[in-house]
Task: structure prediction
Amino acid sequence: MKITKAEAISKIANRIRQDLITAIYYAKSGHPGGSLSCSDILAVLYFNEMNINPLKPDDKSRDRFILSKGHGAPTLYATLAEKGYFSKDDLITLRNIDSVFQGHPDMNKVPGIDMSSGSLGQGLSIANGMAIASKMDKMGYRVYCLVGDGELEEGQIWEAAMTSSKYKLDNLCLIVDCNELQLIGKTEEIMGLNAENIEQKFASFGFNTKIIDGHNIEEIMQAFEDAKLVKDKPTVIIAKTIKGKGISFMEIDPSWHGKSLNDEEYKKAIEELNNIN
Amino acid sequence: MEEIKKIATRESFGKAITELKDENIVVLDADLSSATKTELFQKENPNRFIEVGISESDMMGTAAGLATCGKIPFASTFAVFATGRCYDQIRSSIAYPKLNVKICGTHAGVTVGEDGATHQMLEDINLMRGLPNMVVISPSDDVQTKALVKEIAKYEGPVYLRLARMATPVIYANDVKFEIGKAVQLGEGIDATVFATGVTVSEALKAQEELLKEGVDIRVVDIHTIKPIDKETIVKCAKETSILLSVEDHNVIGGLGSAIADVLTEEYPKKLIKLGINDCFGKSGKAESLMEYFKIDSKSIEETIKEKLYINNKSK
Result:
């Protein structure tokens, strides 16, 4: 069942944020900043946009999603649990030796994960392969791929962009989680990347492009709707986001790229998220 | 003298993939289809051929994506680019998720010839053998290549197929059957065993013929599957023959010889003489001259065995 009310999806995104932060807290390691920045996007994808059924995770005609920025795994796990692919109870085993919830997504361990990921820059090529298969078999399913903005520094992304464009993959939608930060600092300072020139680059590679507010549920839903109307071109949605979104002391602070929370920080984080709804 | 029929395994590969019946087979290439011979498939099945241009990493990822949707992708380029350039793509997006992608590397080894070191891949077996879930196949002639292409298409999982540019003699009769993981023993000689793979199998057979004229009877073992390797045959030959020798168009580090040594160390410790490229890069030249230069030709095999026999006899 698809949820169409933005407010309802917003609440789901907030639950996803609480679940992923709890998982990272128990794991004592992980990547909270980039997990929080893409939570609204994943909530829209799984609860409004994609044709999927948690009871049939291997259905051949389902839409596909690739989390190319695999370190956002906690968001994907929390979203799939929220959607009903598996129980939420096990999320806190994240990164434990006996857990299916690996530090980065493993398609063979967790139902609902369409591709393993972790090494950056590879997701768009995978998405191309899936989108080509969909066209070859006339299945009509769509393929969604989420990359980080820092991830665009990987050369393979641009090899893949040429392929998406050459094969006119209008059933493919790339989303850039443009949170403007990477591990050691600002993407703008490190490689001169910002939402505007990312858009220019993709436009020159033959993509239909759109810059949106990646935390505005209605804008995200609309962007996905618009992408479906485009023919013969792949779409990229450049979603301007805030790294650490929803937790005041994590927002726009690159030091929260890859570390967990202590007891006090966790308590404060959950309190703040609770207050949003 | 009877004319020996010669054909390069890359050519046999191009023909074999074209003959595969499964409609799920998709062939990808990176601007080398005239050299890898995938153009034969493209001509027959233009709708199932994907040209990605000169971008091998993207090709491997695309192949992985296709495989998740039930396709059987054969991703083809030169061995040096197929394995070295895209090692991480293969590791993360093919081997780790255990996807049904067939990585086809043509132009392996010094027998590439004139193009020289940058194009002569001597480390690919080492790279692919070290990856969990990966099967490594290195066929020796036309018949075997065609048969094994059919086998790997049926096998569900990642495979690296190592192919050669140089034309080599047809060794096997058309009806010989080959099984992934099962080596082929040629001859019953007990004076020595020569383990060979790919282009060196026909060299070993030439040496076998020459040595027999001098009363030395050796056996040749064609190891077309380097992983999983046929432990049983290796141990059997180690027990039955006095001299063990491996010969490969690959670095002696991490290739066929190393794979055999791994088995011997654990199962039946015995000395193994490794002929191969001695931890150096290749160089330009004619393929035949390079085989001689790097001592992986029939003459070098012959001389090594004779020398070893002489030493063995002397010490008795």
Remarks:
- The mean pLDDT of chain A is 97.
- The two ends of chain A are 23 Å apart (CA to CA).
